[in-house]
Amino acid sequence: MRVKWIAVLTLLIVLASLTAGGCKKEAAGLETVIMWTHGAENPDFLAATEAAIADFQEANPNITVQLENFTYDVFIQKLRASFAAGDEADVLQIFGTWATDYARKGYLDPVPDTIDTSGFFPASLGGYTWEGKLYGLPHEYNLECGGMLVHPAMFQEADLEYPQTWADLVAAAKVLTKRDTQGLTRAGFIFTSLDNIVYSFLSFILQQGADYWNGDQTAVNFSTPEAQTAWKALLDLIVVAKVEDPSLVSGEEDTSDYFYKGQAAMCYRGPWTIAAGLNSYNLSDFDYVPVPPFAGDSMVFAAESGWGEIVSARSQHKAAAWKLVEFLTTDSALAWNLRSFTLPARQDVAADPAYIEQAGPLMATPLTVLEGGRWIGPLWDRDRFFDILNRHFLAAAAGLETYEASLKAVETELNAMLAENQ
């Protein structure tokens, strides 16, 4: 009997060992992918990402995604510090313009050949490309050109039609501008946001059939007649036509906030601002209509690559990380763009009747111009690029610099910054 009990006990131990081994094997099959994003200031954006991750985990129960989000300013600093220290997340949701620098430094894993990238708009992929290879995939087509917010009641009051040419726009802006003894009380056409000064200037150059880069995109060229014409046209809106006053915009407010408060008749801003009007200001009596080209017959413009995902070259879970990125930019692309109120980076989503139907009529205008976008180019330090151009533009608008001197200073300072990154 004792021998039998020993045999039974031995069998139980063996079975327990096999069962335990099975548990370990199953546990080893589970993976946790850490993902970072911003979104604390943009609840729609964050909610869209959270919903997409929930769908991914339901479809892939062996992968857990640990999502961590930060405020925008904290996120930028955390990215730089963590890549330098080597402790970044597996997947990082970033603005596409930042990707090139990280890829150049060897921080990013290239997109696997198994992922089909043919369905994206070229302009949305540019910022994720380094030396012919893709190092991330976008969710969003970042667009600031081609459409503007308008108050139809203000046009009706002034007996005006929406402008069909650039000359029409300037003329309407003059009529719609209002002043009192203290100064401007309503801008006819407000456009001096940090982004739109840059985008408008570069796109005006492109619409004249010129370029703002040298041949290998290592330096900008603003000494062309087309660049000088574009610079003067924008400054003339403030200095000559007086349809806008940059001092109106202060603090954390966006130019679109002034529009929604009734302090601007037209506002040149990207379609992402529509959500604020509908949800934050609870307005419905505004339109989003085409901005006529400055020159030529079609809207040609510069565009940055928008928000998307990259994978760390040091990730220990690359296969799972890329599976997540592929899901986010394919299977959940339509839902993400609708929830975040953003334009699709994918051509098939932009053409999907479901997107057009659910996004609403205000998004019809930007969808018509997406083919005209061209990647803005290798800015390297995006913040410095935009700051330099804006600083001298506003100095010229205030009469502190001449038109000619301000544009020359922009070219000189930008090329010095770009040279640091060659």
Plain-language structure description:
This protein is of the alpha/beta class and 422 residues long. The chain has 2 domains: 32-142 and 304-370, D-Maltodextrin-Binding Protein, domain 2; 147-303 and 379-419, 3-Layer(aba) Sandwich (D-Maltodextrin-Binding Protein, domain 2). 46% of the residues lie in helices and 13% in strands. The chain is built from 18 helices and 14 strands. The chain has helices at residues 2-28, 43-59, 72-85, 99-104, 122-125, 152-157, 166-176, 194-207, 225-239, 255-260, 274-280, 318-329, 333-340, 347-350, 353-359, 364-367, 382-397, 403-419; strands at residues 31-38, 63-70, 91-95, 129-130, 133-134, 137-138, 147-150, 178-180, 183-186, 266-268, 287-290, 301-303, 307-311, 373-375. The strands form 5 sheets. A 5-stranded mixed sheet has the order 2-1-3-13-6. Strand 8 and strand 9 form a beta hairpin. Helix 2 (43-59) runs antiparallel to helix 13, helix 8 (194-207) crosses helix 17 and helix 17 runs antiparallel to helix 18. It is globular, with a radius of gyration of 26 Å. The termini are far apart. Residues 1-27 have low confidence and may be disordered.
Overall geometry comes to globular
The SS-based structural class is alpha/beta
Oligomer state equals single chain
Count of DSSP strands: 14
Largest sheet: 5 strands, mixed
> How many structural units, i.e. domains?
2
CATH superfamily of the largest domain: Periplasmic binding protein-like II
Q: What's the end-to-end separation, in Å?
A: 83 Å
Radius of gyration: 26 Å
Proportion of residues in extended strands: 5-15%
Instruction: Please tell me the overall pLDDT.
Output: 91
Q: What's the tally of helices?
A: 18
Helicity, as a percent range:
40-55%
Low-pLDDT residue spans: 1-27
Which fold name fills CATH's third level, the topology of the largest domain? Answer: D-Maltodextrin-Binding Protein, domain 2
* CATH architecture type of the largest domain: 3-Layer(aba) Sandwich
Assign the CATH class of the largest domain: Alpha Beta
Strand order of the largest sheet: 2-1-3-13-6
